[in-house]
Specification:
single chain; about 300 residues; alpha+beta; 8-stranded antiparallel β-sheet; 20 strands; about 45% strand; globular; Ice-binding_C; PEP-CTERM protein-sorting domain-containing protein; signal
Length: about 300
């Protein structure tokens, strides 16, 4: 009887494994992609749009006139948006021959970049985020919303292309007064501060990436990983200076320089999961117990 039970149990487990394996087809191993980005909203320090000039309009987003699905659920209505710019400029130059400050996302290609990558392969470069941080007179940028949509084209196997749900990057910005002491240590007082909040994309503090999980029906779940060089968890002082809670994510920029942050992209076959605080506590307790046992052995 016991052997029959073991055999039956093995058959059930094998059947479950086979069912799980057959739930999805062979994974997608190669992708073509096009990412389109542009600013759909922005405000200056006077809570107006008058002090900001947009340029380098993204063709796809500027041509949208309907609803685009969002990673957070629901959709965003483009019917009244008009031009969606990949570069914002502001301020009156404060030095002779100086230029305006600006923030751009792939402005050289109007916020559109295409490429090819492999699942679980190396990340590929996409566009650059550039902040021309020049001395200016106010008004300056205060906040902006960057819209990003990712079109994916499975190459191996060859499948129909699709749009992943779009992401919206909420950007909060502080143009510092360059008066010592600086909130953020900097070679040329004082660094300006950007805070980024991406609804629907988890931030991994280990590899500094934004992560977006998506599904291709019958081919499983995948994770799009976006690395913006220089983005990290900011100091509490920097978060407070911008007026947001501690633990904020972002970057800072050096005064009187064109600050460039390269962006790269990869796809894995492992959906991103953010550890719960309770789980992190259990892991910490387990490591402490292990260390104690080694110490007392």
């Amino acid at each position: 009887m016991e052997r029959k039970f073991q055999l039956l149990g093995g058959m059930v487990l094998a059947g479950l494994s086979l069912a799980s394996a057959s739930a999805f087809a062979a994974p997608i191993s190669s992708w073509g992609f096009t990412t389109d980005s542009g600013f759909i909203a922005y405000r200056d320090t006077n809570n107006s749009t008058a002090g900001i000039t947009g340029s380098a309009a993204n063709a796809r987003l500027s041509g949208e006139n309907g609803l685009i699905s969002l990673q957070t659920g629901g959709s965003y209505d483009f019917s009244t948006i008009g031009d969606v710019y990949s570069k914002l400029s502001w301020g009156t130059p404060a030095v002779p021959g100086g230029g305006q400050s600006s923030l751009s996302v792939g402005a050289a290609t109007n916020g559109s970049v295409s490429g090819v990558l492999t699942t679980n392969g190396s990340s590929v470069p996409t566009m650059s985020v550039v902040h021309n941080n020049f001395p200016i007179y106010a008004p300056s940028l205060r906040s902006a919303t960057l819209f990003n949509i990712l079109k994916l084209d499975p190459l191996v196997p060859d499948l129909p292309p699709f749009d992943a749900p779009a992401l919206m990057f909420a950007i909060h910005y502080l143009e510092t007064d360059n008066v010592l002491p600086c909130t953020v240590a900097s070679p040329t007082p004082c660094n300006d501060i950007f805070v980024i909040d991406v609804a629907g994309a988890g931030f991994n503090p280990l590899d500094k990436t934004f992560n977006q999980t998506f599904e291709y029906p019958e081919y499983g779940f995948y994770n799009a990983k976006l690395l913006v060089a220089g983005v990290d968890v900011l100091s509490d002082a920097a978060c407070r200076a911008v007026g947001v809670a501690n633990g904020c994510i972002g970057f800072t920029t050096v005064e009187s320089e064109a600050n460039t942050f390269n962006v790269s992209f990869s796809i894995t076959d492992k959906p991103f999961e953010t550890p719960e605080p309770a789980s992190l506590g259990l892991i910490g307790a387990a490591l402490a117990l292990l260390a104690y046992r080694r110490h007392t052995a």
